[in-house]
Design goal:
2-HAD; globular; 11 helices; 6 strands; 44% helix; six-stranded parallel beta sheet; alpha/beta; DNA polymerase, domain 1; 231 residues
């Protein structure tokens, strides 16, 4: 394998534990709420909200806006319709405070020693920057769908990331815990590395992390990926 120049990373589920982080914060704030169900429902609104943008049904808006719209729709279902604006705004920012998986910082640091590492997420720039600051994620660069005004799996995101670094698509490796993200990247000519995150949706909802032969690499976590990349 000819090594890539640039590694670009999906974030939610791949680098950070969105489910566990939201469950912990909800449990502290609202112990009466089924935090597992709330976290899953919030995330379930993610793809439909982005699809409205992808389909041209609405103009591009930041993920923070979409998360807030989904949140406002969820609150009555979970007995939280009484929350005021300040509480809703702060709760929506839980996505800025997501904790990294235990291997993420060490794995990224090792990979950074040899490669340029960069986020490539549907999260907006402010969200990703706040998250990196809070979780200690050592990015060389923060890239977001917001830069390209398109949500993955739109090819503009993957090809745009390569263009930022004046790299050919084949010099870029997409790293993600989601096969659909990797398939879209592969269709654009990127190399792909799958990261197993069986607990992405929580211990009660174990995810199938079976290998897909089309991926360039398959790793247990980011430390294992660093091993495979010679870092």
């Amino acid at each position: 394998m000819k090594p890539p120049r640039i590694l670009v990373f999906d974030i939610f589920g791949t680098v950070v534990d969105w489910h566990g982080s939201i469950v912990r914060e909800l449990g502290q704030r609202f112990p009466q709420v089924d935090a597992d169900a709330f976290a899953l429902a919030w995330r379930a609104g993610y793809q439909p909200a982005m699809e409205a943008v992808r389909s041209g049904g609405r103009g591009f808006v930041k993920l923070d806006v979409l998360h807030r719209e989904i949140l406002d729709g969820l609150l009555p279902r979970f007995g939280l319709a009484h929350l005021g604006e300040a509480e809703r705004a702060d709760l929506n920012r839980v996505w800025h405070r997501l904790a990294a998986w235990p291997d993420s910082v060490a794995g990224l640091t090792r990979l950074k020693s040899r490669f340029t590492i960069c986020s490539l997420s549907n999260g907006n720039l402010g969200l990703l920057t706040d998250m990196a600051k809070a979780a200690g994620l050592p990015w060389d660069c923060v890239l977001s769908a917001e830069v390209f005004r398109a949500y993955k799996p739109d090819p503009r995101v993957y090809l745009g990331a390569a263009d930022v670094f004046e790299a050919a698509p084949g010099e870029v490796m997409m790293v993600a815990a989601h096969h659909e993200d990797l398939a879209a990247a592969r269709n654009c000519g990127l190399m792909t590395a799958y990261i197993e995150r069986p607990l992405e949706f929580g211990a009660a909802h174990i995810k199938d992390v079976s290998p897909v032969a089309a991926n360039t690499l398959h790793a247990r976590d980011l430390l294992h990926l660093a091993d495979q990349m010679g870092c």
